[in-house]
Design a protein that fits this description.
alpha+beta, eight-stranded mixed β-sheet, five-stranded mixed β-barrel, BirA Bifunctional Protein, domain 2, 14 helices, OB fold (Dihydrolipoamide Acetyltransferase, E2P), 19 strands
Length: about 425
């Protein structure tokens, strides 16, 4: 019977066949241990010379790293293994022999591993990170589907930019200028006016020349938009959503978190509600911490966000930023018009901002005024203004950066490990 490694718990004591690759092996004169992987997981295959016979044992000892094979054996429980099972091998069929596989069990430099990203993905560590990424995606759909949201796909090629064009990739769209999307938000607002509660999940692009561990050129965003939701409603959805995906990873990816050495006790504390501080309070806090370089009206950098986050065990909302720091579409606080009804959600443990969100301006005259103030082309935003002209309602939304969220939950240091094929300032290969 042909099965996957993920299914072995259902076949204890039975002989099965698994299509796999040899991740590693070690052997003595009488026994060979084969570290096998098939994409669904890892399992150890044990070949005992006295039971398997001379020919099979010889085949096992000759196997090379990353050769593909069909492995037949009897599933046995093994309490010493993190996986809980092993395979007592009774047969081997080599499909394709791998020769001189470049990524050996020794240490390799980051650039070497990035040059071989197509192979590095096969490692236990990268496998664990990708499984956690997948669980975050799965639980994202679960969360929004259960709450009546409709999935909408905004365009990747756009004729305008929600936050200006200085950090966008320009291209020719036949005889017009176009840009790779930095956010689907404006289109999601249109979708919310048609469908009520919507969310998108897709690639976004920033031509930002940054080399920090938090930045990618191409990354994925989850962007919900909700009609008839005010600022407070919006924050509630955000904290419930983040708590949901963290608890889902804890429930379904325990083995992967252990493989990465993640301190799960920190994740177990991530439950709604989350603490909140205003921008004003954040500035005051930073001054007390000795950050005298930052003044009211300045944006926060990574050291500032980290200092604030270190005071909390959960993600923390920083709310009510100065209007001058934020995009044109954010609703001002009616009690204090120099700040807007927005919030950034800062992850614990130094991972920075994972969500940016706000209530959107729903007044036609105010939005028209803001577009002029930001020196944007009113003609390019004509359709966006019409959303306020024909049945405008208060509405809110946010965007969560998937890769930063994966980095935080999995505990890896750099976002380059959280996406299958990262696009960085100096990297377009492979």
């Amino acid at each position: 019977m042909k099965i996957t490694i993920a299914e072995v718990s259902q076949f204890v004591g039975q002989e099965v066949t698994i299509g796999a690759w040899l991740a590693n092996k070690r052997s003595s004169g009488k026994i060979a241990f084969l570290q096998l992987r098939d994409g669904t997981g890892f399992i150890q295959g044990v070949v005992v010379k006295s039971e398997a016979g001379e020919e099979l044992f010889k085949t096992a000892k000759a196997l090379t790293q990353e050769s593909s094979l069909y492995v037949t054996g009897i599933v046995q429980e093994d309490n010493r293994s993190p996986f809980g099972f092993e395979l007592n091998v009774t047969g081997l069929e080599v499909i394709a022999e791998a020769v001189d596989y470049p990524i050996t069990p020794k240490e390799h430099g980051t650039e070497f591993l990035m040059d071989h990203r197509h192979l590095w993905l096969r490692s236990r560590r990268q496998h664990a990170v990708m499984k956690i990424r997948n669980e975050i995606i799965r639980s994202t759909y679960e969360f929004f589907n259960e709450r009546g949201f409709v999935k909408v796909d905004p365009p990747i090629l756009t004729g305008s930019a929600p936050e200006g064009t200085s950090e966008l990739f320009h291209t020719q769209y036949f005889d017009e200028d176009a840009y790779l999307s930095q956010s689907g938000q404006l289109y999601m607002e249109a979708a919310a006016m048609a469908l009520g509660k919507v969310f998108s999940f897709g690639p976004t692009f920033r031509a930002e020349k940054s080399k920090t561990r938090r930045h990618l050129i191409e990354f994925w965003m989850i962007e919900p938009e909700m009609a008839f939701y005010n600022f407070e409603d919006n924050l509630k959805v955000q904290e419930e959503y983040v708590a949901h995906i963290v608890q889902s990873v804890l429930k379904n990816c325990r083995l992967e978190l252990e493989r990465l050495g993640r301190d799960t006790s920190k994740l177990e504390q991530i439950k709604a509600p989350f603490p909140r501080i205003t921008y004003d309070e954040a500035i005051e806090f930073l001054h007390k911490k000795g950050f005298n370089d930052i003044q009211w009206g300045d944006d926060f950098g990574a050291p500032h966000e980290t200092a604030i986050a270190e005071s909390y065990d959960k993600p923390v909302f920083i709310t009510h930023y100065p209007t001058s720091l934020k995009p044109f579409y954010m609703q001002p606080d009616l009690n204090r018009e120099e700040v807007v009804l927005c919030a950034d959600l800062i992850a614990p443990e130094g991972y920075g901002e994972i969500i940016g969100g706000s209530e959107r301006i729903h007044d036609l005259d105010l939005l028209s005024e803001r577009i002029k103030e930001h020196e944007l082309d009113p003609e390019a935003y004509k359709w966006y203004l019409e959303l306020r002209k024909y049945g405008s309602v208060p509405h809110s939304g946010f965007g969560l950066g998937l890769e930063r969220t994966v980095a935080w939950i999995s505990g890896v240091e750099h976002v380059r490990e959280t996406i299958p094929f990262p696009r960085l300032l100096n990297r377009l290969y492979p």
